[in-house]
Specification:
mainly beta; 1 helix; 5 strands; about 45% strand
Length: about 70
């Protein structure tokens, strides 16, 4: 949530324009394949909650959930 609150710009582009393989990158972090998140800065995502789960032997998953913000 600190990274989100910092409102860092998100670079977007194509690793291969011919096949339209998109990526996104935040300065200081690895470039990753695009998963359909089309925001311009981390602040647009909103607060998130992470939860670790262990579905099996030597398997760990991290669930990411958006946190609803109630505006009064």
């Amino acid at each position: 949530n600190q990274i989100i609150a910092t409102n860092l710009p998100i670079e977007k582009g194509y690793t291969d324009e011919a096949t339209q393989r998109r990526y996104w990158k935040i300065d200081g972090f690895a470039q990753v394949p695009c998963g359909g998140t089309h925001v311009n800065a981390t602040g647009e995502v909103g607060q998130v909650q992470l939860k670790r789960t262990h579905p099996g032997k030597s398997i760990e998953r991290i669930e990411i959930r958006l946190v609803e913000v109630v505006v009064e």
